[in-house]
């Protein structure tokens, strides 16, 4: 019983670990003898042997008029099993992280708590932008195209394609600059309506209003941060302000 704890740590059940530990130190053995040696019921042992066969950790030898015997595979097979568990865990982690923001949002709404999330760097900025891809409402945004192209052009291009595929509509109030007007000529995106804010040429910030949330992104060479605030009152205020400004903004 040298390796039972180790075998359980890499994902085997207690009975599977006991069987494999025994077979690693035995050439071959019948199921009935294995059950007797590890002091487990035969039915439990038979089920665990089938599971170990599917995992590729043991082999079964059948011969005419003889009882089947079982042998352990080479211990190196355990490393492949561990790699598979690591891969599965990574997929589960990614799946969990993809729904965690919504879980937090639902929790905050249910418990009447405004949620605030803070992010830094390019990857953090990407998470803030990507959060809008789950939006069930139209997205309202204030943005500066020149700063976007200077700092996150590739991210924005990828995001726009994903948003188009998801058919999420967006209204954008842009800083009124020659750069923005020229850049729009090359923007191949649908479900987007833009207008210009009069007398404002630059603001190195993106603000997005959607799904009871307001997010902010600062775009500068030295510091890039993102914040997502989820609060019904704050969302309602910014939504109303945006809609009021939209009515007087210059059409593109």
Distance from first to last alpha carbon: 76 Å
Order of SSEs: HHEHHEEHEHEHHEHEEEEHE
CATH superfamily of the largest domain: Endonuclease Chain A
Gyration radius, rounded: 29 Å
Record field, number of beta strands? 11
* CATH architecture label name of the largest domain: 2-Layer Sandwich
Structural class: alpha+beta
Question: Order of strands side by side in the largest beta sheet?
Answer: 4-10-9-8-5-6-7-11
> Biggest β-sheet, characterized?
8 strands, mixed
Q: Could you explain the architecture of this structure?
A:
- With 252 residues, this protein is of the alpha+beta class.
- It has helices at 4-9, 14-24, 31-38, 42-55, 76-110, 121-130, 145-151, 153-166, 178-184, 232-248, and strands spanning 29-30, 58-61, 69-72, 115-120, 139-143, 170-175, 192-197, 205-210, 213-219, 224-230, 250-251.
- The strands form 2 sheets. It has an 8-stranded mixed beta sheet, sandwiched between helices. A 3-stranded antiparallel beta sheet has the order 1-3-2.
- A hairpin with a 2-residue loop joins strand 8 and strand 9 (213-219).
- Helix 2 crosses helix 3 (31-38), helix 2 packs across helix 4 (42-55) and helix 3 (31-38) packs across helix 4.
- 22% of the residues are buried.
């Amino acid at each position: 019983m040298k390796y039972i704890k180790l075998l359980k740590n890499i994902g085997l059940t207690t009975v599977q670990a006991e069987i494999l530990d025994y077979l690693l130190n035995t050439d071959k053995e019948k199921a009935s003898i294995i059950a007797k040696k590890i002091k487990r019921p035969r039915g439990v042992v038979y089920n665990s042997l089938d599971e170990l066969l599917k995992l590729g950790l043991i082999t079964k030898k059948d011969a005419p008029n003889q009882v089947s015997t079982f042998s352990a595979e080479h211990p190196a097979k355990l490393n492949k099993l561990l790699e598979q568990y690591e891969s599965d865990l990574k997929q589960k982690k990614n799946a969990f992280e993809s729904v965690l923001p919504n879980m937090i949002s639902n929790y905050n709404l249910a418990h009447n708590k405004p949620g605030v999330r803070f992010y830094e760097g390019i990857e953090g900025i990407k998470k803030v932008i990507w959060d809008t891809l789950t939006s069930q409402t139209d997205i309202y945004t204030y943005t500066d195209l020149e700063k976007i192209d200077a700092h996150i052009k590739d991210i924005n291009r990828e995001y726009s394609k994903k948003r188009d595929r998801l058919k999420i509509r967006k209204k954008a109030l842009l800083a009124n600059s020659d750069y923005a007007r020229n850049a729009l000529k090359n923007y191949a995106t649908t479900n987007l309506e833009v207008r210009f804010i009069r007398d404002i040429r630059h603001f190195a910030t993106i603000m997005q209003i959607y799904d009871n949330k307001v997010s902010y992104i600062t775009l500068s060479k030295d510091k890039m941060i993102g914040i997502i605030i989820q609060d019904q009152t704050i969302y309602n205020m910014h939504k109303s302000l945006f809609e009021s400004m939209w009515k007087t903004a210059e059409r593109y």
